[in-house]
Request: fold
Amino acid sequence: MSQRVAVIGAGPSGLTSIKSCLDEGLKPTCFESSDDIGGLWRFKETPEPGRSSIYRSLVVNTSKEMMCFSDFPMPADYPNYMLHSQLLQYFRLYAQHFDLLRHITFQTSVLTVRQRPDFSRSGQWEVVTENREGQEQRHVFDGVLVCSGHYTQPVSPLDQFPGHESFPGRCLHSWEYKDADAFRGKRVVVVGIGNSGGDIAVEISRAAEKTFLSTRKGAWVLARMSSSGLPLDMMAISRFTVLLTSLLPRALVNWAAERTLNHRYDHRLYGLQPTHRLLEQKPLINDDLPGRILQGAVVLKPDLRGFQGSGLLFQDGTTEGDIDAVVFCTGYNGTFSFLPPSLCSGPRGDLNLYRKETQNQTGGGCGGGGWVQENATAYYPSTNSSRGSRE
Reply:
């Protein structure tokens, strides 16, 4: 008898999980709280609480050659780096090709995932769901794959900054941001220099009177285009480079790569010089930020310290006055409220899964049931699963 597996979420991880289950002879049932597939990559004009949200101009940071599913190449007419709507269309083609939609129950939320009383023997899980009419239903599964992502609970550190109560301007999180229209002619501060912070600062700078980008630790900036005009990841990710970086001392690899980046533009002169080495953290992928800094359209500022009326005070003691809006690109809490407390620990609910990326082998293990997989993101012991800190 085939084992029954619950798949939570019908985004890209959920879709591939459904297909993988079918390939292995398992019986998947996917629960999707919205009315469509796509997860993060479904753009909506108005953000919905508890769901991920993206901005109108979002373009992927991974080329189609590197990100397509191995058993379903992307159409040849797709660009190397595509807009979110094209990526969503690819997921639709994938789901249609492998007939995955019939395994998805839409507009159904998962309330709880708990071990059954006989879990030590059966390795089974009880999953409680709720449909759009508010009706609850209990299910029993041999395994659960959590593919719901972790960009749904935005972290805003506004309370950490004195004086924010009297700030007359608008404060928002990047989760709420859609486009730059609302910031035309205004003076805006973007806090955080992750990929969202870089994208949003560049876009706002094309409409705003002045845009400031506040960063606590800087960033190494890479463009999507590499030598000969080829996609960066196609050139940088290969068996040769992996072998080379594994054989050479890490310090030497950092030095060589950072030297190459600084030949394009000196990160220190641009105010981007980070406090960490290149391989220690993910770099910022952005094609336009250095150019906008060179033009004075984006001005780098250090870490935000507090508010002073309509002005902002920064860590180096400088201030910028008459600020109309502050956009916090400060990450998300990777929490999964439906999982049992035994799988979560700490104030941020860090997951206690094997390497925080695959499965908890307590109980029967993969072969005998009793496994839970978090397949939406890769969590590692050395990585904080909360993205709430300012980048």
Q: What stands out?
A: Residues 158-328 form a domain with the FAD/NAD(P)-binding domain fold (CATH 3.50.50.60). The two ends are 49 Å apart (CA to CA). The chain has ten helices and 20 strands. Residues 250-264 form the longest helix (15 residues).
